[in-house]
Amino acid sequence: MPISEEELHQKMAKGLEYKQEGAVAFKAGKYDEALKRYHHALLYLRGLNDNPLNVSKSRDPDNLKESDITELEKEISTINANMALCQLRLERFDRIARCANEALKANPFNKKAKFRLAQGLIREGSVIKAAKLLDELEKDSPNDPAFAAERRQIDIREKQAESKQRKEFAGMFDRAKK
């Protein structure tokens, strides 16, 4: 049974209220509380989708335009991107990419979600994928200091991996000669 227009607006308002509470908690540095609020917001908003399970939702990603994204999808995407930032602050690096990917599933044009995904990938050690995302983001904003900071993170990760590799292989060929 479809919900009434009034009920739809009430649930949307409640979901957005939880989103705002999440933002307030985040600004106060209460990241776990913010995650809870964002999660509640998603519970309200996901149920408003005409197709909550996305059953046979056929969107050709090559022909998708930003104007095809609904306001509801934009809100869901923003909330997931915010959750990715909370996970980053809490140093739960394995969860950043998951939240960012959920955001991008709802709205593939969400640049903040792409940036959060790049941040998560860097911290997980997937620097090549992260660099590709940063390349894509830098096309629109080549001088963004946040992108430059993440490029430095990639450099640090690569140097750490190189140093580790050198230590592992140190003296390997000397031993082979004896």
TrEMBL record:
Residues 149-169 have a biased composition (Basic and acidic residues). Residues 139-178 are annotated as: Disordered. GO terms for cellular component: cytosol; endomembrane system; membrane; mitochondrial envelope. SUPFAM superfamilies: TPR-like. Pfam families: TPR_16 (PF13432). One of its GO terms (biological process) is negative regulation of apoptotic process. One of its GO terms (molecular function) is protein folding chaperone. InterPro entries: FKBP4/5/8-like, TPR-like_helical_dom_sf. This is TPR-like protein. It comes from Coemansia brasiliensis.
